[in-house]
Amino acid sequence: MTTTDVPVGSRTRRATIASFVGTAIEWYDFYIYGTASALVFARLFFPEVSPAAGTMASFAAFWVGFLARPLGGIVFGHIGDRLGRKQTLVVTLLMMGVATTGIGLLPTYAAIGLAAPLLLVALRFVQGVAVGGEWGGAVLMATESAPKKRRGISGMWVQQGSPAGATLATLVFMVVGYLPDEAFFSWGWRVPFLLSAVLVVVGLVIRVKVEESTDFAETRRQAGVVKAPLVEVLRSSWGLVLLAIGASAIGISAAYFTNTFVLSWTTTELQVPRQTMIYVLLAVSVLQFLWQPAAALIAQRVGTVRLMAGALIGNIVAVVPMFLLIMTAQPALITAGLALGIVTGSAYYAMLAGFLAQVFPANVRYTGISVAYQFCGSVIGGSTPLVAQYLLTSSDGSPWAVAGYYVTLLLLTVACVLVLARRLAARRASGA
């Protein structure tokens, strides 16, 4: 049966489910690394330095995955624009599963010395390449297979993979967190990574049954496939790439601010128990998962750009109360503070995938959105815990420099969203 033989509703449903499930698994893998960076890796892989320096080294290794993401976006974007979206999604999921399981099997510094952090960084690099190719393909598989009026909703389900992965990662760490410290640091932290092998098998079974996206099939039918998608994107759409990078800034950074930096900050400087903070992160992840579909429905009524811009402005207003509430070190108030950021920020994030999928022509769309999103992840998203920790340490524990950095990212994002929306409107008006 060809793509065109499958009923539209069935094709859309399969593509959306496959994109959501696979993306949730990949984000689970990425988030458990972030959680382990905040709780485990400084002690087990960088023990020869001070705790603060160990945390910085752990976050630097965390950033390596983001530095690798543009490479994944370029390589798999090229493959996806030349050969199709489906093949790349199977390969990226398999790569992520192998790398994550490998981390769960790694000997620590105490066992093999310097080789341990080097292997950790190498496997983190593979994770980055995999997720760099995953996001763009999942977005396009879901949105390009849906009717035009439903593409925003389909893109939202890809974005649901982030809170779903975060929720699952937090739940698994919550369970192993009940172990005594000796058991947790000995073998308990490995369980979330080893579980990835089971999840990847489930994801692969679902993905291999999906048909190629409608838009790519049409592009191939019309002989519109280009030989060098990256060259074409940089030749004709470099301005859109830069705007898309800026429009993604807080969407990528916010998750690692919450799940990595705030987790480290609260469990060290603020002395909040590790298990308590895992409960807090679980609560806000569930909130995000529940709120994003509601935000997508609101966007259908008020317009995608209005919702995104309004949510981002609301997020700016929420920054100061959010930090004040976190600084109380009271779990209920920390939850309330993070919830402020989640409700405002995730409304924008829910619509980001569908919004960016409209930016580039179908024949270079995979490469265009992947390069933009993954370069943003590399330069801005992955550096967020490291930059935030540096600002916190340099300010003798005062978080207001971190808050200023967060607001700067929000301002960059809202400006680029508005300019990009204007360009899209002008292109539609001209019929291009």
UniProtKB/TrEMBL annotation:
PROSITE patterns to which the protein is assigned, alphabetical: MFS (PS50850)
Residue ranges crossing the lipid bilayer per the database entry: 30-46, 52-77, 89-112, 118-140, 161-179, 191-210, 237-257, 277-298, 305-326, 332-359, 371-391, 403-421
Compartments where located: Cell membrane
InterPro entries assigned: MFS_dom (IPR020846), MFS_sugar_transport-like (IPR005828), MFS_trans_sf (IPR036259)
Residue ranges annotated for the Major facilitator superfamily (MFS) profile domain, each copy included: 15-427
Keywords tagged on the record: Cell membrane, Membrane, Symport, Transmembrane, Transmembrane helix, Transport
The UniProt record lists the keyword Cell membrane: yes
Molecular function in Gene Ontology: symporter activity
One Gene Ontology term, aspect cellular component: plasma membrane
Topology of the protein relative to the lipid bilayer: Multi-pass membrane protein
Protein origin, superkingdom: Bacteria
Keyword presence, Phosphoprotein: no
Described purpose of this protein according to its UniProt entry: May be a proton symporter involved in the uptake of osmolytes such as proline and glycine betaine.
Protein family: Belongs to the major facilitator superfamily. Metabolite:H+ Symporter (MHS) family (TC 2.A.1.6) family.
Record-given protein name: Putative proline/betaine transporter
